[in-house]
TrEMBL record:
Entry similarity comment: Belongs to the rhamnulokinase family. Belongs to the FGGY kinase family.
Function of the protein: Involved in the catabolism of L-rhamnose (6-deoxy-L-mannose). Catalyzes the transfer of the gamma-phosphate group from ATP to the 1-hydroxyl group of L-rhamnulose to yield L-rhamnulose 1-phosphate.
Organism of origin: Evansella vedderi
The protein, known as: Rhamnulokinase
PANTHER family: L-RHAMNULOKINASE, SUGAR KINASE
Binding site for ATP: A12, S13, S14, G15, R16, T259, Q304, G403
Pathway(s) annotated for this protein in UniProt: Carbohydrate degradation; L-rhamnose degradation; glycerone phosphate from L-rhamnose: step 2/3
Domain Carbohydrate kinase FGGY C-terminal as annotated: residue spans: 254-441
Molecular-function annotations in GO: rhamnulokinase activity
Keywords noted in UniProt: ATP-binding, Disulfide bond, Kinase, Magnesium, Nucleotide-binding, Rhamnose metabolism, Transferase
Residues annotated as catalytic: D238
């Protein structure tokens, strides 16, 4: 009987448990459970509903039991940078504060007073996002020093969920790199940097690699679920797992398209040169010590927020159709303007930007969606130009993976803008990469190369080419 695994993929907008296994030479998926994820305000900070997320994981595992599915393992991946701190009694010292919380406003600039931006980049190779873990911890050190003094354990979100399941404390490598506190060359916590910042290095756990078997479930969880299984580490940074599932990385620029758009290439070495710094590219850790040379682009967060502002009266598919009907609307925004990171009202923020730049102001849902999609494509093209400038090579194709690959209009716009072939899929790339890492650990798959070959043969990928001839 072949082994099987459960991937828990929790992105910023939704979570899902997906059962994965090999059958007749193909990777098969079965969605077991799906749930909403969102940021809430607890009166002090924007936070994740971490207890609810853990309950949803258990709900999904209970559904497995009801369906008669007995998986051999489970692996959890989520968004990056966020964490919890535990005290000496392993109690939470704060809620799971979200990266969009304003507590990091101004912190990056304060850190640069103690270590230069250039040195930080040369040591870590990580892009400068104001919400990186390093700036979140610096904010706590500055504004709530008593919390940091009591902190004995630092766990990132997937680490914490693993701890709740198993009682084992560990920091997984790919997600740890997103903190901007791991040295890109030693691949360990940068203790010199932590000392320099006055952050207690003792609270960080041993860094474990993807495919590590963390252990079985705590007895109380076994009693609750009615069965046990191994917790295996995938690339617990969701984008790290998504990139695992890119079938053909040579000559490919991947675009992990979800709440964020993560656009980049896979490497076997970090690129920490000044041009990469100037363009704000990152070298996040990948499976098997690969590197994800990529940059964050604001992503479909913008259409998620517009959808919410419109009272969820339109589905994403309907918003795409309305954007097609607004074909004549041409205003665009700089999607990476900080105002779009967490505006009170995304539609108003977009309208304000268009007003400030003397452009036609979008009024309808279709104009808003068209503006967002056109604007994202401009940012994608800019990032592709920068990648090709740094690599001194042209890339043949763009592989769009994740939920956003279902946006056929956006896929076509990318093909028209870049004049590159666009391959859309797999949709559940993150969960697929998560399952692949577990099945390799279970010796059901030999390695990432075999996994990628099987992924290529197992999932539909739709191709888009430019319909407008280059002039
Ligand atoms: N049917 C659809 N048509 C167009 N876009 C879609 C469709 N379904 C989902 N999407 C897009 O996919 C995004 C969610 O992608 P996903 O990878 O699940 O996000 P995350 O992992 O960040 O929660 C949505 O914000 C939406 O823009
Ligand atoms: C805040 C990080 O940059 C973010 O988590 C990004 O790395 C990421 O992985 C986003 O994944 P989504 O599935 O939430 O788009
Ligand atoms: Mg995701």
């Amino acid at each position: 009987m072949s082994k099987s695994s459960i991937a828990v993929d929790i992105g910023a907008s939704s979570g899902r448990l997906i059962h994965g296994y090999v059958e007749e030479g193909k990777l098969k998926l079965q969605e077991i459970h799906r749930f909403e994820n969102k940021i809430v305000h607890n009166g002090e900070n924007f936070c994740w509903e971490i207890d609810k997320l853990f309950d949803e994981i258990k709900n999904g595992l209970k559904k497995c039991h009801e369906l008669g599915i007995q998986p051999d393992s489970i692996g959890i991946d989520t968004w990056a940078v966020d964490f919890v701190l535990l005290d000496e009694n392993d109690h939470l010292l704060t809620d799971a504060v979200a990266y969009r919380d304003p507590r990091t406003d101004g912190m990056m600039e304060e850190v640069f007073q103690t270590i230069s931006k250039e040195r930080l980049y040369l040591e870590t190779g990580i892009q400068f996002q104001k919400f990186n873990t390093i700036y979140q911890l610096y904010s706590i050190k500055k504004n709530n020093p008593e919390i940091l003094e009591k902190a004995k354990t630092f766990l990132m979100i997937p680490d914490y969920l693993n701890y709740l399941l198993t009682g084992v404390k560990a920091n997984e490598y790919t997600n740890a790199t997103s903190t901007q506190l791991v040295n890109a060359f030693t691949k360990k916590w940068d203790h010199q940097l932590l000392d320099h910042l006055g952050i207690n290095k003792g609270m960080f756990q041993d860094i474990k690699l993807p495919k590590t078997v963390l252990g079985g479930l705590k007895q109380e969880i076994v009693n609750e679920l009615g069965f046990d299984l191994d917790v295996i580490l995938p690339a617990t940074h969701d984008t790290g797992s998504a990139v695992v599932s890119v079938p053909e990385t040579e000559g490919t620029i991947y675009l992990s398209s979800g709440t964020w758009s993560l656009i980049g290439v896979e490497n076997h070495f970090p690129i920490c040169i000044m041009k990469a710094l100037d363009y704000n590219f990152t070298n996040e850790g990948g499976i098997d010590y690969r590197y994800r040379f990529l940059k964050n682009i604001m992503g479909l967060w913008m259409i998620q927020e517009v959808k919410r502002n419109l009272g969820d009266q339109y589905s994403f598919a309907q918003l795409v159709d309305l954007a097609r009907e607004a074909d004549g609307f041409t205003s665009t925004v700089n999607v990476d303007d900080e105002r779009f990171l967490k505006p009170d009202n995304m539609m108003e923020a977009i309208q304000q930007y268009c007003s400030e730049t003397s452009q036609e102001i979008p009024q309808t849902a279709g104009e808003m969606a068209k503006c967002i999609f056109d604007s994202l494509v401009i940012s994608y093209q800019s990032a592709i130009d920068q990648i090709e400038e740094i690599y001194e090579q042209n890339f043949d194709r763009v592989n769009v993976i994740g939920g956003g690959c279902q946006n056929e209009l956006l896929n076509q716009l990318i093909a028209e803008k870049t004049k590159k072939d666009v391959y859309a899929g797999p949709v559940e790339a993150t969960a697929i990469g998560n399952v692949a890492a577990q099945l390799i650990a279970l010796n059901e798959l030999k390695d990432i190369n075999e996994a990628r070959t099987m992924i290529k043969d197992s999932f539909e990928v739709k191709k888009y080419t430019s319909l407008i001839e280059e002039r």
